[in-house]
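Example 3.2
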Amino acid sequence: MKYINELRGTDQQIQDLLKKDDGGPVCMINLMKFREKAKYEDGRETDLTGVEAYDLYGKPTGELIAELGGEIVFTAVLKGMVVGEVEELWDVMAIAKYPTLQSFIDMTSSPIYREAYHHRIAGLQGQLNIASTQV
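Structure, written as tokens:
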């Protein structure tokens, strides 16, 4: 199985996801790898770590998720692999639950989200974001 850590999703990925939308709740599984030191795209100097920069995105985004009827269900620091093998383990895993896929899309379109987004990019080295539904 091949995986590629990315910082941004593509329009095609969203379109493919919308085709599978059943109108019910959706959980986003986030596997995150942080930069040791934050790196802003505009080149600004900073003493922030990647985690500190990401937190500047995470706090307002978490509040926004709650306003849209969602919640952060689970967050954990990853300790190691038990089965399988990856070249480098992600640092943190988080699950955010949204009432609908549309509420997730609304969140990503929000001015609050967009205002904080540059901190996300500055803090992350890479990420996998996997849409799922509970069974």
